[in-house]
DNA sequence: CTGAAAGCGCTAACAG
DNA sequence: CTGTTAGCGCTTTCAG
C-alpha cells in the first residue's frame, strides 16, 4: 500500500481512504490511487485490516462431519450466502467431540471470526455454553437449544416432522412400529422421536413402537436394523431419524432378504438427494437444508453488524415426501 | 497479553516468549506467565501473530462443490490433517467458475494463507495459472496438471482406472460399450476416458464404444443415460466417469424399465459410500479420497515450511471393486 | 480534501 | 535470562 501511495503521490492514509469507500477524497485523487493499485496489482492484506477494524470477514462452521450429505447441503447454503457478503467460511469437523469443539472455538475466536455456526453445543457443559454465549461472538445453533442460554437457532420443525411420519404410517394401517433414533440426547433426533411417539399414541390405542438407539449415520442404521430384523418382533414399519439411518436399514433389509416396502415400510427424514436413487426411492420428511445454511449466515451477518444483538430463532417447515418405501400394511 | 505480562510482573516480550516455545526463559518465569494466562483465560490473537510472522495457519480448499460426496471425503481428509497440524481450512465452492475461483484466490491470499488446494485450475487462462504458480503460495491441484506449469498435484491413477474398467467389461464379454464422461476437458474424467478407450482397443478388435459428454454429477448421468436408452443402440455395458454419474444411470435405467445388470452392466468410478447401498450395489473403481486430502495437506505443510519448494506429484493407486452392477453379457 | 501520527496485538532482533 | 525497540499492513482520529 505504501508503494501505491507513493506511485499516486499521496500518503498512505489517502490511499487507504481511496480504496475503501470512505467519503472525503477528491474524485481525481481517488482515481489516481485506484489506477496505481491496479497497475501494481495490489492485494490488500486483510489480516492487517482485521487487526484494526476488529472484524475479519470470516465465519466459522463447526459441524459433526461434512461427509454427511445433510451437512454438506447446509454448508453449501452457508458458503453461498457468505460468499455473497464477501465472507470466508472455515470448515470444522467436530464429530461432536467436546475436545475438538473447544479447540475450534478457541481457534476461531483467536482469528476474530465474525460469527460461528455450530450444529450442536451439547457436548459442552453448561458453564462453557454460558461463556460461549456471552463471549460477544455471534453464534447460531442448528438445533433448538431449548436451554435458557440465549443462542440463536435455525432448525426444522423436527417434532412436527416426527408427527407427520407417525400419522402417515398409522394411516397406512401399521400398528407395530419401530423407530431408529441415533444417540440419546441428540437434540434434533430426540425431538423427532418425541413428535413421532406422541402422534402414534394420539392416533391409535393399540399401536406399539419399539425405539432403538445407536449411531446417527448409515453404519448405525445398519447395525440397529440388523438387530431389529434378527429379533423379528413383527414390526411392519420403521421410522428412521434421518435418511442416512434409513439407508442403513435398506442395506440390512436387502441382506436379510426382506423387501421394502412389501415386508417392511420405511420412512426417513431429511430428503437428501440420494433418497431418489436408492431402490425403492425413499419416502421421507423433507427439511430445507440449503436454506438452513443461508438463514444461519444471514442471522450471523445481522448480529455481526452490531446493531441489535438479540438472538433469533428461525424454524423451517417440514413436509412429507411420498415415494415408494412405504405402503399399506398387508397382514 | 499486556495484562498477563503485568500480572506476571514481566514485559510483554517475555510473556510472548513464555507462551510460545522459544527457548531462553527461566522456568519459573514461564510458569508464572502461563498461570497468569490461564487465570485471565487469555486467548492469543492469531491475526496479530500472523501479521508479523507472515504465516497464518490457514489453508484454502477450493472445490467444485462440497455436496459431491467425493469432495466431502477429500475435504474431511484434508481437514483432519490440518487439524492435527493446528491449521484451519477455509472452504470455497467454485462450481469450476473462473470468476469465483479468482475471487477466492484473491481473498485467500489477502489472508496470507499458508497454502491452497484446488481441484482444478483449468478455468483460469494460462497467464493466470502462471501468476498463481509463481505467487509464492504453495498450491496443490487435485488432478494431474499435465501442463508445464509447476503445480504440485495429488490424484489417483485415473488412466489406469479407466483401463481396469475396460478390461473387466471386455472380459465379461461386452463388445458394445458406452462411456459417460462429463464435460469435455475435465482433467480427471478425460484421463479416465483415455485409459478406457485405449484398453478397449487393445483388448478387442470388434468392440465399439460410444462416448457421451454432459454434466459431471447425478443429473448429468441421468440425462445422458436417458438419451442413450432412448436411442437404444444395443450397448450392453456402461462405464460412468464417476459414481455420481453412475447413480444417474441407475435412476434412468429404473425409469426406462431396464434392469442392471441383466439388461445393462454398469461400472462407476470413485467408490463413494453410497455405492454399497444402491440396488444393485455398484461395481466401481476405488480411489483413495480421504488419503488425497491428507496427502494434499501434508504437501502444503512441507512446502509452507519453506525448506524445499519443489513441487511434488503424488499419484494414488486405484482398484476395481467388484459388486453387483455388472455381469457376463447375455446375448 | 489531505497529511501526520497513533495504534490494533503480537514477534523478533538486539542489547544488556 | 529479560527488557527495549521496531515494525508487520492497515485504519482512523485529529489537525490543518
How would you describe the overall organization of this protein?
Two copies of one chain form a homodimer. Chain A is α/β, with parallel strands linked by helices. The first copy, chain A, folds into three domains: 2-44, lambda repressor-like DNA-binding domains (434 Repressor (Amino-terminal Domain), Orthogonal Bundle), CATH 1.10.260; 55-156 and 289-316, Response regulator (Rossmann fold); 158-288, 3-Layer(aba) Sandwich (Rossmann fold). In chain A, 45% of the residues lie in helices and 17% in strands. Chain A has twelve helices and twelve strands. Chain A has helices spanning 2-8, 12-19, 27-39, 46-53, 69-84, 98-110, 126-133, 158-171, 187-203, 218-231, 243-255, 289-305, and strands spanning 58-63, 88-93, 115-118, 139-141, 152-156, 176-180, 208-212, 237-240, 265-270, 283-287, 313-316, 318-321. In chain A, helix 11 (243-255) links the parallel strand 8 (237-240) and strand 9. In chain A, helix 1 packs across helix 3 (27-39), helix 5 (69-84) packs across helix 12 (289-305) and helix 8 runs parallel beside helix 9. The longest helix of chain A is centred in the middle third of the chain and has 17 residues, at 187-203. The first copy, chain A, is elongated. Strand 2 (88-93) of chain A pairs antiparallel with strand 2 of chain B, so a sheet runs across the interface. The structure holds a DNA duplex (16 and 16 nucleotides).
